[in-house]
Amino acid sequence: MYGVWTPEQVATAEEPVLARTPEGALMRRAAHGAAQVALRMLAEGGPVVGTHVVVLVGAGNNGGDGLWAGVELRRRGVGVTAVLLAPDRAHPAGLAALRKARGRVVTDVEEGVAAVGRADLVLDAIVGTSGRGGLREPAPRLVAAIGCSVLAIDSPSGVDPLTGTVHDEAVTATETVTFGARKPVHVLNRARCGLVTLVDIGLGPELPDAPVRVLDAVDVGRAWPVPGPGDDKYTQGVVGVAAGSAVYPGAAVLASGAAALATSGMVRYAGSAAHEVRAAWPEVVATDHVADAGRVQAWAVGPGLGTGEDGAATLAHVLDAGVPVLADADAITLLGASSDLRARAAGNPVLVTPHAGEFARLVAELDGEFDPAADRVDAARRAAAALGVTVLLKGNATVVAAPDGRVLVHPAGSSWLATAGSGDVLSGVAGALLAAGLEPWWAGGCAAFVHARAAGIGAGRPGAPVPASHVRAAVPDAIREVRAAALAAS
Ligand SMILES: NC(=O)C1=CN([C@@H]2O[C@H](COP(=O)(O)OP(=O)(O)OC[C@H]3O[C@@H](n4cnc5c(N)ncnc54)[C@H](OP(=O)(O)O)[C@@H]3O)[C@@H](O)[C@H]2O)[C@@H](O)CC1
Ligand SMILES: [K+]
Fold this sequence. Notes:
Rossmann fold; seven-stranded parallel beta sheet; elongated; binds ligand NPW; lyase; metal-binding; Nnr
């Protein structure tokens, strides 16, 4: 697990470190780390001596990092051109050092565009943690001229460092090198950051508890329920799946199957697709109504449920059952439309798993601002607090927010998971984890991780769509992977 801190928290942590280190030392540490990554990237194309790097230098300390990195690259035989976007405000010490190291300094935009066109690597040092809004002129013209790899210094310029959002023009980096701590942009907008390298500049002891955390394979593998010698089908947790319909039984079959593959606990199914579920998954005990389903340790409710009276009655029944509940799809629409159902859920171990559209319906009747397009971490955190349930907001970066303020982000590598039925698989996996005893925040985080890995495995080679049934089929391999990681780390 690693932490993610806001730009403000990082700036606060920097203060005491700046105060006890010689002037400029922190920036030199950061710049050294950036130069190391740049040299590695250049070396991928052959010898670095004689290559040409262009540094796009903004008005603040981010530009200072870029200039000092340029100084180190000069010492390694790399040709360096610094293009100053705000010539009067470029970091004075960094600029003087680059000139001394015989780096070329350009202030004319046309000359800068020509240099960018000839570069082997561009360092984006336009703006870092103080950046707000899209790129300002003349940065867009220079960025548009890039035809080579880009290393973003701290964060890709034009992408909001706190929220990862992009409004206008922004840099798309091949890689990003960041300092002291990862910031939200690095997990919320992987597509713009590329591979992220963290350089230690000694902030660790000064950082508060991380407001956002990211699970790794070892965390997930350790948390995954593994049966011991004394376990049987009941002790691993029985999950009930209340999903599907006679018209669209696919959701029920996908969710029940995913639940059966996720843990060794038993799966019960209750709903109008009992026949189809039984045919596809003989190990699932299927009945027509939740009232006849028998005892379960958690319910997964919603996919294909319908949003009419029957669906509402089923949701009310499972919310009153006194066990953890995973609510997805139609169950989310029902919750959004009924204060009575929301009251039954509030304060209980309930995990809701909306995509953007379902999230809008979920919060439609609540007071306050919930805008995932502006800040998805903040929106999920507020919704969880207002509803008294754990919210897993699906998307390219999945956010899991608990009502007590804890937030997990799972940065997915691609958007191929946004496919029909994919959410049903996630429901089944998360429901099985709830039944096995994981609390909703962990169940959501572990399910999102394994779901994304299963999509990667199910797709085979990257770069192509993966249908939900392939995601489901790959769940065991994804579990094997995280368990192997946990065993290797123990
Ligand atoms: N403190 C330290 O020692 C360390 C700091 N470190 C480094 O410092 C960075 C933070 O530096 P920082 O605070 O100086 O701000 P920074 O991100 O360079 O930007 C400020 C300038 O950008 C401008 N600007 C704003 N938005 C813009 C846009 N969209 N497009 C274009 N321009 C825009 C804005 O202009 P203004 O609004 O003032 O006109 C302002 O002048 C941090 O990311 C890390 O790299 C590391 O070296 C570790 C040690
Ligand atoms: K930058």
